[in-house]
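batch_manifest entry 22 of 60
target: Cytochrome P450
source organism: Aegilops tauschii subsp. strangulata
requested by: lab member K.T.
priority: normal
notes from requester: please return tokens only, no post-processing; we will run our own comparison against the previous entry in this batch. if the run fails, retry once and flag.
--- input ---
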Amino acid sequence: TTHGALAAAVVLALATFLYFLYAAWLAPSATRRRLRGSGFGGPAPSFPLGNLPEIAASLAESNGTLPAGAGVTSDIHGAVFPYFARWRAAFDKVFVYWLGAEPFLYVADPEFLKSATAGAMGRLWGKPDVFRRDRMPMFGRGLVMAEGDDWARHRHIIAPAFSATNLNVRIRHDRR
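--- output ---
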């Protein structure tokens, strides 16, 4: 029975290792190849953390400051997300980055977004499970986390607040 228990432990350990190898390396590698074959470039991920080491290094290096010579600007994207600013310069407005073994599509091109979400295929797009799990406690069930018809209902409710008239009133009020 000792040999049987040892054999079962070895088989379990091997199965766990193979599952980890598949889930954290083989499956993401195949996904990355398919994405690159479809024209989606992006920074090369490292096993098993994806682009997290590069993100951490970029944040430590920038310390939340704008690059020298940036001057006064209302665009704080580069200061808050220096890695996105660097990747966008290198890979244009649409690219894939990795958080661990999970790919994320960065889209800063409205025309690409319109074409990708148009028609029946647009209904298949949604927020990844990891996003829903991690962000739900912070954002609740509002516009940021809503999808499909629920998103459309939320967007319809808040749209008047962002009309040109309301925004101009707000700008004039803030300048006083």
